[in-house]
Design brief:
alpha/beta, 7-stranded mixed β-sheet, binds S-adenosylmethionine
Length: 291
Amino acid sequence: MTEEHLPQRYYPSTQYLLPADQEEVARLNEQHRIIIKAFEDKLSLAPLSLNTGDKVLESAAGSGVWALEFAAENIVKGVEVDIECIDISAKQYPVTYPSHIHFSVHSVANLPPEWSNTFSYAHQRLVVLAMNDTLWRSAMKELFRVLKPGGWLELIEFETKRFHCGVGPSSNRLCSLVDKLFTEKGIIQDVSDYLCPLLKEVGFIDIQCQTRDVSVGGRRIIEGGNGYTGEQWGEGWMGIKVPVLTGGGYGVANTTEEFDALVQASVREWNDSKEVYTIFYVITARKPVSS
Ligand SMILES: C[S@@+](CC[C@H](N)C(=O)[O-])C[C@H]1O[C@@H](n2cnc3c(N)ncnc32)[C@H](O)[C@@H]1O
């Protein structure tokens, strides 16, 4: 496939499989609502006790939606935390924001040396499609380093291995394609089984993992309406179109038209099924006080 036939989306790196542009901002903000609802309207599950002036790191901030809401929630409680948002791309950052929230461009795998022992809390959501083993190891070491002794880490990820979204011929083909792409990119697919031992190895303690099944398509009806519509779930998969096509289509979709048709047919299968869901994990862990 020649460059001029690829969709005009902005991709910040070849390792990260999704775009980082204004279309993606809209998707991330919609997804934020779905995730928060699945976790009983909570922005955070770590047992935090933050005070005014405490520093919070929002890693892989994307549109900054979590940071803006977390800051506002704390202001209501009379606490003004200082939030540092980082991401490998600034393209999704908000234009206006309160002065106690800061945005900068860094990789979580390589944070500024002067940030050691700085943050009382570090939050990171949905970087699984940007990470291989080497990056995860560097990232967890960096997050440990920049947390203050006693500080909390919270990671939110979704399962990319035990997919429950192959419910018909098209969605099964899409899942097999995605599996091949993830394997080639070294994406960690059993992310919860992988992360908890890694956190222990890095030095974290009090490691806990909570899960929530989040419905997709027709299953939303039996789950009280929460979850992704087939179309919303499909928009996420449309984001990987460029890596799929530049990777040669993985024997499933060789052209933009074939890929679009595959996702559209999968969306219909998801909306017609009551079996489709994804699993979200929230992993909390603490840096020992005596480190
Ligand atoms: C799926 S988005 C999630 C954004 C946000 N955390 C949320 O939940 O709405 C993943 C984000 O990770 C960022 N990202 C990818 N690789 C990264 C890295 N090595 N360090 C920091 N951010 C990264 C991407 O640019 C993107 O904004």
